[in-house]
Amino acid sequence: MADRLPTKQPRAPFRLLESQPVFYSQLAADIGKAEKSVDLAFFVFESDKTTQPIFREIEEAARRNVHVRIVVDHIGNIHAPFASRREFRRLTKLQKEGLKIEVKHARQKKDSLNPLRRDHKKIVAIDAGTNQEVGYIGGSNVSGRFLKWRDYIMRTTGQPVEVLAADFQKTWEGTNNGSSHYVLDAKDGTEMLFDSKKTDTIIDRVIKEIGNAKERIWMETSYLDSHRVKDALILAKKQNPNLDVRLLIPDYKTSNDFRFRYFPNHWTRPFINAGIDVREYTNSKHFTHAKTLLIDDLALTGSSNFVDDMVVGGDAEVVLLSKNPQYRRLLQEWFLGGWEHATPYK
User: Fold this and answer.
1) Count of C-beta atoms within a 10 Å radius of residue 166
2) Residue 292's beta-bridge partner residues?
3) Where is 183: in which H helix or E strand?
4) Residue 173 CB: number of other CB atoms within 10 A?
5) With 251 labelled, which of 133, 184, 188, 243 sits at a CA distance of 20 to 30 A?
């Protein structure tokens, strides 16, 4: 059953921000126009030379009496440089000047059975509930460390922003203990799925859609450590040999995960043996961190790496899926752009 939506009519033109510099510039500009509120939740959110314009606009927004709230994950920011930590301390001290700026670290409860569970979402909600509301959803973090990664984030307006703001509020209050499902537009099948650190609704939906595929399954992902997704893809291809199944992965020589860097064949060979077209993105040795899934006329993106709950301990994630022609076209063009610069895995 879908969660209750805001009563406002949907208005969701999408814009794909195709690189970190484009994303950071646009985010700084949107924060600079904020009048009411700025809510940001990121797995990694660091202050450095590249991202400083964002932090500068955050402070200026607070000085305009805009309420600014930031949630950062405790694991994602564990390696944040000293200068970034110092900047966060400085921002929180601005509260003493009467500025509405607050920072929280998303952490698991002390009784958690798995300390590796993370809040992996990357979402922004600016001026939610107003005519100038803007939101972001995708896989891009905020840090100069990721400038060479192939990645993107989706900018949107209207009803999705209010849904993102509602989820942010749950995170802020520590009450997002389950999954949420919102149907934004039944006509074009626009939905948003949220997983907490205790649910795996997104992967369940991905596997269901893979099983229903008739013509194509195009997936771009950084990691292949999902046995459920692997089995579903291989089964789909086996049952329909004419199904166009493509898998776009990084050149694992650029990965900082030793499992893929040193044992790539272990992860890729089962797909190839099943007749699935696997390509490595090798352009300029940039690591592809994008999360893209196209199944027939359905398109999906968000923060999820399409990995199992048991692998990483149950991350908090969000995805937006839709049959909206504009949304599908943006993700299809993105995927094909990477596919053209990729080489067949050997």
Assistant:
1) 19
2) 220, 301
3) strand 180-185
4) 8
5) 243
> How many residues does the structure list for the chain?
346
The helix (run of H) or strand (run of E) holding residue 154 is strand 153-157
The rounded distance, in Å, linking the Cα atoms of 37 and 224 is: 38
**Burial grade of 256 (CB within 10 A; 0-12, 13-18, 19 or more):** exposed
Of 21-35, 102-116, 127-141, 304-318, minimum mean pLDDT range: 102-116
Q: Tens digit of pLDDT for each residue in 266-318?
A: 889 999 999 999 999 987 667 889 999 999 999 999 999 887 654 444 578 99
List alpha helices for 218-306, DSSP H.
Answer: 227-239, 258-262, 264-273
Residue 99 · residue 62 · CB < 8 Å: yes
State the DSSP H helix or E strand holding residue 324, giving kind and residue range, or none if neither.
none
Q: Which residues of 142-156 are buried (b: 16+ CB within 10 A; e: fewer)?
A: bbbbbeebbbbbbbb
Q: Where do the H-state alpha helices sit in the chain?
A: 20-32, 52-63, 82-93, 159-173, 201-212, 227-239, 258-262, 264-273, 309-312, 325-340
Cβ-contact 64, 106 below 8 angstroms? no
pLDDT tens per residue across span 312-327: 445 789 999 999 999 9
Q: Which residue has the tokens 């074009």?
A: 188
Show contacts of 52-60: CB within 8 Å, 24+ apart.
Answer: 53/24, 53/25, 53/28, 54/24, 54/27, 54/28, 54/142, 55/87, 55/91, 56/28, 57/28, 57/29, 57/31, 57/32, 58/31, 58/91, 58/101, 59/91, 59/94, 59/101, 60/32
